[in-house]
Amino acid sequence: MAERIYLYDSTLRDGAQAQGIDFSVADKQAIAAALDAFGIDYIEGGWPGANPTDDAFFGALPKTKTAKISAFGMTRRAGRSASNDPGLQDLLAVNTPTVCLVGKSWDWQVETALKVSTSENLRMISDSLAHIRANGREAVFDAEHFFDGYKANPTYAIEALKAAHEGGANWLVLCDTNGGSMPSEVYRIVSAVKAALPDANLGIHCHNDTEQAVANSLAAVEAGVRQVQGCINGIGERCGNANLIAIIPTLMLKMGYDTGLTPEQLTHIGELSRLVDDRLNRAPNRHAAYVGSSAFAHKGGLHVSAMNKDSRSYEHIDPALVGNSRLILVSDKAGRSNIVNRLHQMGIEVADDDDHIGELVKAVKEREALGYAYEDASASFELMARERLGQLPRYYELQSYRALNEYRLDAKGRAFDVAEATVKLVVKGEQVMSVAEGNGPVNALDAALRKALTPHYPQLNAMHLNDYKVRILTPSDATAALTRVMIESRDDQGRTWNTLGVSHNVIDASYNALYDAITYHLLKAGV
């Protein structure tokens, strides 16, 4: 039987301390529900009494199926009894099954930050944990600054753990609070703690200040800890916390531990990662281990050729195990294998020895040399491929377009812009002209195209612009520079696709990207 590792998520507390992150009560409730559904063992909801958001969250605790909600706080204050400490009273009042208390384990911190004696600190730890246990709660002790404290004074650091253990703590969690420890140090120190407290349940809590929080957490597991604390996507104060999204599959797939998750639950880890990013209104990290959209992306022709023979050539696991999928990129690094594989992924059947493949490889390399980037615009690549294979319908013919931007002053001398676009098209044999205004010439051009096309293709009502980016490719040319426009579009089902255009004229580049976006949508709509 594989040994059990317990997963303790602190996204809602430690993760919320990151700069730029401000969870609402609804955010915390939604994330807690997702963590529970995924199968996390412990969810640290926040610090009762610290702020109105945490108070509101604990005031209406979500009902969980398997996860235990944990309330976070600190040991009693000096000079007070545990039963008369306001902070501990706040923790017990929220009635969570688990309470996590943080206490000092570095003698220097005790004397400089708390300004109490080292012996009083030990009593504060023991009394507080005993009080939590006496009230029927599971008690977790976070030994703050443990690794720095151990390196400075190993005897006192161990005494702090023993005080918590004697107080009845169910878990002793070793914290690399400053995030400066090395994996070899973590392994050595955890091994020493395990020898000193052989009957204690140990946990690990790492920060990422040297980009080693995941490595340090895994080293601690190898040395004997059985609870791992961290945050979804590694968010947290300063440089972040240990990233549970990377730790969980590594524990299961690489190290053979039981995390309480089934293989089927593990396939939803990418959904959990994206849900937190959505709540934070930020784009997911495409290069994130296991779950990123580029985690199993292959660009080099040599790589793809080897992948065709055996996927283990350049993939450390089957992407399906974590709910991800392989992506064959098309770029100027591409060979025939890239093109064939990408076409097959797009549902375009073509023989490996088809003459069109060589033409496509050449076209991709030539166009990328001009500034195109098909690895980020797969929709435009598919349209180019289908056109060369004779599989692309022509939904309309452009005769001309004009886009104007006029700067005006009103009667009171206030300045404002007016953008207007005119398009002349042939749609289904009918000549159509439309004029539209917009927020800038590109928006006006988009509006004019839709005005002309929608009566003939009502499917365009379901297409929306998601993002618009302009990149200057030749900055030394100043205002005459070559530009690349990238447009991300979406439909009413939430599907997204990227198209691009390249030109010295940003309006022309925008039109080409818009043309591809419209054509791709109509193609996928079955028009």
UniProtKB/TrEMBL annotation:
Pathway as given in its UniProt record: Amino-acid biosynthesis; L-isoleucine biosynthesis; 2-oxobutanoate from pyruvate: step 1/3
Any Gene Ontology biological process: isoleucine biosynthetic process
Domain named Pyruvate carboxyltransferase: residues: 5-267
EC number: 2.3.3.21
Enzyme category, top tier: transferase
Catalytic reactions of this protein: pyruvate + acetyl-CoA + H2O = (3R)-citramalate + CoA + H(+)
Matching InterPro entries: 2-isopropylmalate_synth_dimer (IPR013709), AIPM/Hcit_synth_CS (IPR002034), Aldolase_TIM (IPR013785), Citramal_synthase (IPR005675), LeuA/HCS_post-cat (IPR054691), LeuA_allosteric_dom_sf (IPR036230), PYR_CT (IPR000891)
Pfam family, one: HMGL-like
Molecular function terms from GO: (R)-citramalate synthase activity; 2-isopropylmalate synthase activity
Entry keyword set: Amino-acid biosynthesis, Branched-chain amino acid biosynthesis, Isoleucine biosynthesis, Transferase
Family, similarity comment: Belongs to the alpha-IPM synthase/homocitrate synthase family.
Protein's name in the database: Citramalate synthase
Organism lineage string: Bacteria, Pseudomonadati, Pseudomonadota, Alphaproteobacteria, Caulobacterales
